[in-house]
Design a protein that fits this description.
By secondary structure, the chain is an alpha/beta fold. Helices cover 52% and strands 13% of the residues. Helix 2 packs across helix 3 and helix 4 runs antiparallel to helix 5.
Length: 186
């Protein structure tokens, strides 16, 4: 279930850092202007989308179904999700998932040691951060983030409930919403 996935992410992030990632020398992405059509899913939501379905899949299906909505993720964020999938399922599924998500996401780079989801949100200009982590969705975290980054931190269920592609399309792209233009499961 999603709680087990969240616990696996917490365990991974509690481990002492290993060798710097291969992309650690990549230049840090300059922060983009915020956009409501840019979304970050924390590692727990990414792994739950694959392993559990439910709210995580509903939320990310809305993102994947629209080519004008961007999933933003750093390599460390994907590393966390891939490790959780490998730990809870198997290495082959994790590798297949990673190859697919690499094609879907817009990559960003951030300083080593930054929280992967928060840094991806900031560097990628994402106005939505989806996570099961209660500490990131707390009022205190919201107050702290509000002064630094223009984003809404929500559970996948909350995002799926409020995500309105019609009004978002009008605000971001202009014109009449044409409907989904991609198969979210392809």
């Amino acid at each position: 279930d999603a709680a087990a996935v969240r616990a696996a992410v917490d365990d991974r992030r509690a481990e002492p850092p290993g060798e710097p990632a291969a992309d650690a020398a990549d230049p840090v992405t300059e922060p983009r202007d915020p956009s409501p059509a840019r979304v970050v899913a924390d590692a727990d939501v990414l792994a739950a989308d694959l392993l559990v379905g439910g709210d995580a899949r509903d939320a990310l299906d809305g993102v994947r179904a629209h080519s004008w909505v961007t999933l933003v993720a750093s390599d460390p964020l994907l590393d966390d999700a891939e490790a959780v999938v490998a730990a809870l399922a198997d290495d082959g599924l994790a590798a297949d998932w990673r190859a697919r998500v690499e094609q879907l996401r817009e990559p960003v780079s951030h300083p080593a040691g930054d929280h992967p989801a928060l840094a991806s949100t900031y560097r990628g200009g994402a106005m939505h951060l989806l996570t099961y982590a209660e500490d990131l969705r707390s009022a205190g975290a919201g107050a702290t983030l509000r002064g630094r980054v223009e984003t809404s931190v929500r559970s996948p269920r909350a995002f799926a409930t409020v995500f309105d592609p019609g009004s978002l399309y009008a605000a971001v792209e202009g014109g009449e919403y044409p409907g989904p233009d991609r198969d979210p499961r392809a």
